[in-house]
Design brief:
The chain is α/β, with parallel strands linked by helices. Helix content is 32%, strand content 26%.
Amino acid sequence: MPKQSITIDPGHGGTDPGAVYENYLEKDWTLDISLHMAEELRKHGHPVSLTRVTDIRLTASQRAKLVRESGTAVCISNHINSGGGEGAEVIYSLHDERYLAALILEELAAAGMKKRRVYTRESTRHPGKDYYYIHRDTRPIETVIIEYGFIDNSNDRAKLSKPEFRKELAAATVRGITEYLALAEPKPPLSASVMIIDQSGRKIEFPKEKTQIIQGNTYLEGRELTNILGGKARWDADSKTATFDFKR
């Protein structure tokens, strides 16, 4: 099955440096992380596009259009925070679930960043719409914003200023993305029948329509299995307990 494609958006660029602390610039760190991410994703077989690969400035409309027209499964918009906080946070759209953002943050925490939060933000001027244009104007692409840490926090800055650590963060993000896409992949239908053999040696084929495949594992419906084996299944709504009776 072909791998799903991904867009990477290195925040800021050119005359827009983003967050600044002394000689450290957000635009440089986001591009570095993004290029490492692209390399790692390609190793996993994912086609990758980037909104920029050099130090150029993009307008909001140019950036959003590149993402929107990419046709990719997801977009990762990379940023470095400022404002006195500490740690990594991931922001997802009002119109998406939090799973991708949460998986990425867990991986960033495992790589060594303090876990700040996963959240979504609604526009105060336009209720029901996303606050950030990269969410609002890139639909239907699922876009998440990653803030890897705070450039004005000494702990975060000490980590983010190290090229090897930025490479580790890129790899951590890729792990979150690939785990998410693997969970989202449609599972193949059950190809083999499930044969049940009771105590007397009688063989009974379990109805395929009563099975479920969850994360690659096949599960049988308890009530149906009990009926096939000659038992009775009872549900007590008061105690919220199920009884499977095989007494003869």
